[in-house]
Amino acid sequence: MVFAPSLQYRIAERAFFVYGFSKNNRDNIDDDEEAAFKKAAGYVLGLSDSDLAELIDQKQFTEVHDHDKETPK
Questions:
Q1: Contact 36, 50 (CB under 8 A)
Q2: From what superkingdom does this record's organism come (predicted)?
Q3: Of 28, 32, 60, 72, which residue has the fewest beta carbons closer than 10 angstroms?
Q4: How many Å apart are CA 21 and CA 5, to the nearest integer?
């Protein structure tokens, strides 16, 4: 199965995985989806540390750590 590049937003030491899909199921996202992802990016990248902590506590976001590797600066 081939997967399309996932849509991610990255700022400083944070990266947000937003969406991925199998290339076997579809070729690409459509224009409406692209517009929605761009709008979401503005919201997500504007979240404060406390906003993120609250969303994680509410299980609306999931935090993933890679403790074996140093985060690039």
A1: no
A2: Bacteria
A3: 72
A4: 8
CA–CA gap between residue 62 and residue 26 (Å, rounded): 26
Give φ, ψ of 34 to 5 degrees: -60, -45
Rg (the chain; Cα; Å): 14
Q: What angle do CA 49, 51, 55 make, to 5 degrees?
A: 115
Tokens of 31: 């224009």
Rounded to whole angstroms, the Cα distance separating 44 from 51 reads: 10
CB atoms closer than 10 angstroms to residue 27:
8
The answer to whether the beta carbons of residues 8 and 17 sit under 8 Å apart is yes
Q: Residue 14: helix, strand or coil by DSSP?
A: strand
